[in-house]
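FW: tagging you since you asked about this chain on Friday. Here's the raw sequence from the shared folder, copied in full. Didn't touch anything.
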Amino acid sequence: MLSHLQPIESAICTLQAVSEAGDIAKFAHAHNSSDLVRIETFTPMANRTLATVSCLAALAVTPHAQAQALDQPPSAAPAAGGPQGVTSGAQSTAAGVVQSINDPSRFWALRLHAELGFVGVMSHIIQLSQNNSEFNYVTEGGQDTLLPFARFSAEIELAKRHQIILLYQPLDIRTVAAPRRDLRISNTMFRAGQAIDFRYGFDFYRASYMYDFIASPQHELSFGLSLQIRNANIDFTAVDGSARTTNHNIGPVPILKARGRYGFRNGAFLGFEVDGFWASGRFITGSADDFEGAICDASLRAGLHAFGPSEVYVNLRYIGGGARGQQSNVGGSGDGFTNNWLHTMALSIGATLR
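HL: got it, structure written out here
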């Protein structure tokens, strides 16, 4: 078995002898990578340097030669464009082994999600201040078009069961329209036919904890709680600058959460996710005053394994909710009354790194 290593051993011994004698060796390997072609004399320092390089070259035998030396069959070369080096972990499917960004022996796992698509507003009414106009954003404010949609989240799984999810959901709708009637918004007048810039910004940030009742890499049925931070920016601005009203609000919202997934052996999967809550009263609605509030963020998706550690899916999502009540701490031009209800539907393409 060790006969294949003898040419290499011979080359190493020759190099050692030449180096000790102070002679320089320039080696060119023949078919068996061990024949010496010629020897020249240089300084001892250059001799030792080139001898070391030649020694390393002699050791750099091909994988096939290494396999022969160990009486083992050579391993197959990686496919063109395939991954190099050591992969971290794997998940099994009918098509073979799917690479993962997570080592399955590790206590924790990381997953990254992103969605891009479009959203349409199905219904949206708002009234700011008592005895002011109830405004319809869809029929009067230009929200009857499709708008860009994006969503980003990261999650950490602990001990195969516990999941911590951090979500950022931008939702900033900006339109321009000229309503055909006079509007009174937060006690500010806008005349009929006057062009108005509308901004309805309702970005939110959400942290969730869930427990998975099915300890399976293919399937999931999880329930938990979320805490959402709303970042509301509602502006009405006349294009000519003659009138403007703005309402800003930040507040926490507690939410119930559920998520499920059914995976097929070929890597395809179906899933759902729901975050929702309805409440009436103080504090639990995220306000120090009596309010009625509700939120629902629900989705259905279908996807498949793409390549490496990635999945792609199509997602249909409903995001809606609103609030009605009287706020005592008034910081704008209105009297603190709000009646605001929004219903949207989004279609997106998502990707996940698992």
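FW: Residues 2-69 form one domain.
HL: agreed, and The chain is about 10% helix and 55% strand.
FW: great, closing this out.
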